[in-house]
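Give me the fold.
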Amino acid sequence: MATKFTPLHDRILVRRIGEDETTRGGIIIPDSAKEKKTEAEVISVGTGRVTDKGDVRPLVVKVGDHVLMGKYAGNEIEIDGEDFVIVREEEVLGILTPAGASKKELAGSRR
């Protein structure tokens, strides 16, 4: 049975997007030598940041977005045997957009 997880407030649940486990020459890289990936897919988002006035500011990041984050950002967790990272919106460095996407397409997908 799959567990549904919804982060609280301005937290975001992401799955690091893996890269090849071998080099171009065919050398297999052990887990201890691998660098943490900085690209991730957004799986779930919280309701938003609560301001000092008590208002909720919705998050800019949406489910399905591909984002860049710091190598050591967030807290690594395991849900149903799968590895995820919980980060705050402020730890996300940017949202990756597909090459060739028009501004109009991007504006529509951000709503």
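The helical segments are 103-109.
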